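Known limitations

Files may contain more than one protein. Parsers should not assume a single record per file. Below, a two-record file is shown to illustrate correct handling: read the sequence, read the token line, then continue until end of file.
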Amino acid sequence: MADTPFFEDTAVGAELPALEKMPTPRQLVMYAGASGDYNPIHYDRDAAAARGLPGIVVHGQLVSSCLIQLVTDWLGPAGLLKKHSVSYKAMTFPGEKLLLRGVVARKSEAGDGLATLSIWAENPRGEKTVTGTAVVELPRRPV
């Protein structure tokens, strides 16, 4: 637990270690099978073009899942993700590097170890494609 982010040691404004992903068309097909989201804009270039898109697009929920990985990787086994929410702002395309980032936005003063994180995904153009928040419970240092 050497890398465990304890509540007492975590400052507002602290950045989570960034996570990089590179979604592929194959991953989109696999995600469609796992999630049941078979919208053809995620795997069929012609269907995407018919909707005016420049190519197939990554499932928004897949990007949201990557943001959850960012948070849980940082929390480690001693922390707990309590809730999260996201908003979809722009499209993510397969083959583009996706940079997942987060920062501690605020900490509870109630002694419960809760912190709210601001989380987001950026495409190579610096656009935030998905933004959101996560409420986490950090372990407390023994007294």
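...continuing to the second record:
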Amino acid sequence: MPSSVLPHQIAAQSIGRIPPCTILSEARAAEIEGLAETILAEIGVNFTDNPAALARWQEAGAEVQGERVYIPRGLARRLCATAPASFVQQAVNPARSVTIGGGKPVIAPVYGPPFVLDPVEGRRAARFGDFQMLVRLAQASEAISHAGGTLCEPTDLPLETRHLDMLMAHALLSDKPFMGSTTDPERARDSVAFARTLFGLEGDDLPVLLSALINIGSPLSFDATMSECLEVYAGAGQACVISAYAIMGATAPVTVIGTLAQALAEVMAGTAYAQLVRPGAPVVFGLYANALDTKTGASIFSSPEMTQLTLAAGQLARRMRLPYRAGGCLTAAFEPDAHAGYEAANSLWASQLAGVDFMLHGAGWLESGLVASPEKFVLDADQISATLRQYDGLQSASGDPLASLREVGPGGHFLGAEETLREGEARLWKSAVLEDRTHDAWEAANRPDTVWHARQCVNRLLDASQPPSLAPERRAALEAFVARRKKEIAGL
């Protein structure tokens, strides 16, 4: 029977995006939430070496024994309710500001590796030049919407002041949002002060200028560095990405349900504490998850259990009305090979189906996070661009959806059809990195592999990149701030 829907009505309809996957039944989700409440109330959470945190919890109604905090059922959830479901992180270039929790993922690069994979020198300690290069790649990559934080650890700079150099590199080489330091509370305060200077803002009522990664010492422990950094950022109204560090069989139970219950309890405790510091402080529900090979000690990223964890944690985050952070192209591989590609693809797809809002380690991650690779960075960003296209939903034809069929008719072809010529390249996604020649042409070019193509892409991006403009007076203020703080840190 012919459809009663006219072509112009089809074109006008909203054709939906891929919805987040629901893997837990209502009963199972409620069970996990109940287990998390039991963990908080009966097992408790440690806040070590932070008397102020213990005092806050006690005043809020929790029981404190030593450094262990027992949170009564319902208290953490009531506190978490004041955290926003979404927020905007500002960029110096307003067009680059991002909404975290707005329905489309914000993509940030790799975070924290002490090593890089150099195409000439091989695996070596990361340097400040590597950090600057990775910031430039983040700026140049259209799929990367957030410049991240410690894209690699520049080991050639003094530990006490390298955070200032990294902040300066973010300000000079990118106009995308970025993250503050969490290696020490004083460095967190420096990050907030730096952001105030960069944006030219004063006062206590700041917009969200920074996000910061607060890693929980799983199982169930916030050390002083993390809890005090959380206090700095939450107190200034900045965003805390509170992440459970769930390694199944090591820092979390070997079962998916046990790991989910522990991770939920940890994130609830961190989110609630942020609200004790400042009600309404923005928080992202974070999960870093992998499994431990109990025979070799190796990390396992691509497995059914990891997919289940990623999907289920996203569902639990939505039930808490919090933005969700998950990993991107994760892998334990040592180089950008087939091993890396398979694991990264599975990890990326799981995060997409989970409804990820903030994707950390989106691009450039190797060797379980020990190594950053510029070649893998561009390969990952290339594939992320394809997944982002999927978030835009099915695109309707600009006119009559049957126009090209009417033009070609039975037995014809669409190569020369008006619609193909007009819209073909824009309609069809094409990789900017992967080989696309015929076999004969590939043979004639001496069989270049994927890493070779990626290296050429890195070079093209870096050659074409230009630093964003920054007002001279703003740059001078930042340079003065960094110089002053370096002198103060050195005791001069």
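Parsers that stop after the first record will miss the second one. For reference, the second record is described as follows. The longest strand covers residues 239-248.
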